[in-house]
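Sample intake — Melanocyte-stimulating hormone receptor
Collected from: Phylloscopus fuscatus
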Amino acid sequence: GNLAEMLFMLLLEHGVLVMRPSIVRHMDSVIDMLICSSVVSSLSFLGVIAVDRYITIFYALRYHSIMTLQRAVVTMASVWLASTVSSTVLITYYRSNTILLCLIGFFLFMLVLMLVLYIHMFALARHHLHSISSQQKPPTAHRGGSLKGA
């Protein structure tokens, strides 16, 4: 994305491409929208992966009934659609403080969501580690190595 924009600008500066200023502004907006959309969708998919792993761990027996192929396709399409729409709005109204707050809020929300889910999964893994080690007769000296598995 950034490489394409830089290449586009270099071609314009050196006279290889000749375009009206209005077309250049539109092309710049499209490239910015693609970059913004890729960042928002990447962050969103990281959140979706965290939720999927959470469901896998805490609802293992019902995972295939919860996460059907149809739900997976709808989730992926929704992330791409929401990323495209939101990035279009972000680029169109980029000077607005409200848009900047929304973007920061989205980033923080996704960060907190992933942290909470992964901390909860780690806590469950530690709980299972302690349960397994307490069921063994002699205390094991490999506790540190087992913690790596958690």
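Post-analysis note: The helical segments are 2-13, 21-58, 63-66, 69-92, 97-135, 143-149.
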